[in-house]
Backbone:
């Protein structure tokens, strides 16, 4: 069976099914199509299914032309999964209200696929999750269908490493981890993913691949926590944290620069460490670094607001009734994704304190419903950025440094700028290099009396 499936894949006669057509699943589905495979996509979101079948991309950063050229067919129900030789699950893995793993989408996907599992299929999980998930959730479905991994079906875990907004951060350009339940599973997995990935990194077990993915993201969360702590210390010492980071980054070994910010955002870094912390508790192990980084990073929105409050106070103003414009709502530059965005948390905290809020984000035309606001969406649209509007604010709060914003105009017309990202400094951070819109002045932030680092 193994050789038969590998031959099917190598001859491109294998039909690929991708379940969950979001930031992770859609680019993967398109890569398979671009390598000559016939691809079926599955998603419970009928709007996405309709868009894809009409040749339109429902995911920011993916061109309609790629979807139209792919020939992929999308479905809102699973019947067509029976015809697929590989089924790859890319559904969300968020956290619940108590920061516990929420595997509802994985569980529901496996249940929906169960009637269509058959001999000769490869079943892969891509969603980020704690070690043991693939074995706990996918293996029982194969067993219930009378299938044995490595003999008549193939069980895989290969985590997504997509970096939305980064043209080099997509599946075809990055090495991909791959693990199988057995050696035969791994051999099928290597054949399956080889054509679409920018290299393969086989690891010894499903759990090892699951843990590696989490470790990659915990590494970032912990280092961001460290640099956020350094930022607060720098403010107390009246030093420029970005200067310290830039200087340290000249060390040719053993150092990797991370940038401080207003707190964590997105579907991965604020979420994934808690998957590992949860699993660690189950096996009686400690994850002190994860907990500590979580505390530091979660406190950043409050810290930003404290800096804002102090700056307003010095100008005889209070947060209550202050007109504040948030610059950037997305969790990172150049994307429209607001999941877990610290800007939304800052918005929530400021509105609780009675501030009059507006926002500008070229990627987010209207304020979305988010988990941080309990699924509610404030009735706000992105405000045009004009000299008059900037001058009418008590403060402009830079949360997400999108490149398209004219920061020179901001600093010229705003009465008070609270900069959480180091936009107003020299040298300008890498995210903005080559895209600056004017003169940012000749000194660090505090050369402008009205720009406060936060
Ligand atoms: N977005 C990223 O940059 C990124 C990077 C690395 C890993 N990941 C991981 O990839 C996984 C997916 O994340 P994403 O960002 O693509 O999420 P997403 O929300 O963009 O896309 C997930 C899709 O799955 C669909 N879906 C949900 N439940 C479903 C079900 N039961 N059946 C079928 N479809 C269902 C949703 O409608 C949605 O279209 C997560 O585990 C995430 O941690 C994401």
Residues:
């Amino acid at each position: 069976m193994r050789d038969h499936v590998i031959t099917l894949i190598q001859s491109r006669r294998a039909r690929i099914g991708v379940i969950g057509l979001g930031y992770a699943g859609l680019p993967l589905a398109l890569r398979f199509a671009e390598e000559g495979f016939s691809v079926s996509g599955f998603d419970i979101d009928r709007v996405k299914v309709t868009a894809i079948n009409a040749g339109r991309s429902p995911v920011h950063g993916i061109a309609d032309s790629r979807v139209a050229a792919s020939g992929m067919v999308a479905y809102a129900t699973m019947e067509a999964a029976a015809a697929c030789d590989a089924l790859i699950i890319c559904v969300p893995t968020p956290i619940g209200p108590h920061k516990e793993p929420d595997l509802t989408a994985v569980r529901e996907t496996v249940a929906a696929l169960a009637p269509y599992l058959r001999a000769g299929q490869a079943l892969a999980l891509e969603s980020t999750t704690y070690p043991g998930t693939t074995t706990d959730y996918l293996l029982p479905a194969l067993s219930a269908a009378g299938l044995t991994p490595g003999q008549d079906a193939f069980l895989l875990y290969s985590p997504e490493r997509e970096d939305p907004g980064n043209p080099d951060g997509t599946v075809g350009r990055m090495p991909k981890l791959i693990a199988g339940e057995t050696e035969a599973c791994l051999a099928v997995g290597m054949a399956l993913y080889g054509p679409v990935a920018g290299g393969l990194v086989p690891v010894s077990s499903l759990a090892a691949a699951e843990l590696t993915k989490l470790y990659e993201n915990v590494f970032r969360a912990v280092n961001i926590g460290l640099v956020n702590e350094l930022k607060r210390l720098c403010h107390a010492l009246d030093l420029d944290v970005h200067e310290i980071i830039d200087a340290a980054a000249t060390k040719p070994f053993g150092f990797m620069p991370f940038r401080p910010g207003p707190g964590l955002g997105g579907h991965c870094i604020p979420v994934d460490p808690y998957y590992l912390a949860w699993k660690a508790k189950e096996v009686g192990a400690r994850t002190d670094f994860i907990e500590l980084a979580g505390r530091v990073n979660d406190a950043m929105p409050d810290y930003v607001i404290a800096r804002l409050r102090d700056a307003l106070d010095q100008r005889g103003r209070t947060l209550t009734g202050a007109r504040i414009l948030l610059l950037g709502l997305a969790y990172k530059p150049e994307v429209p994704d607001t999941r877990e965005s610290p800007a939304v948390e800052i918005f929530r905290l400021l509105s609780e304190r009675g501030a009059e809020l507006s926002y500008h984000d070229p990627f987010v035309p209207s304020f979305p419903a988010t988990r941080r606001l309990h699924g509610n969406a404030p009735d706000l649209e992105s405000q045009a950025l004009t000299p008059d509007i900037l001058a009418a604010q008590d403060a402009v709060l830079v949360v997400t440094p999108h490149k398209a914003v004219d920061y020179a105009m901001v600093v010229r017309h705003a009465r008070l700028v609270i900069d959480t990202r180091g936009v107003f400094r020299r040298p300008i951070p890498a995210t903005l290099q080559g895209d600056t819109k004017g003169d940012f002045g000749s000194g660090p932030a505090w050369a402008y009396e009205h720009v406060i680092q936060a």
About this structure: The chain has three domains: 2-204, 214-280+283-294, 299-453. The pocket of nicotinamide-adenine-dinucleotide is lined by residues 19-25, 42-45, 48, 90-93, 105, 108-109, 127-128, 160-162, 164, 267-268 (CB under 6 Å).
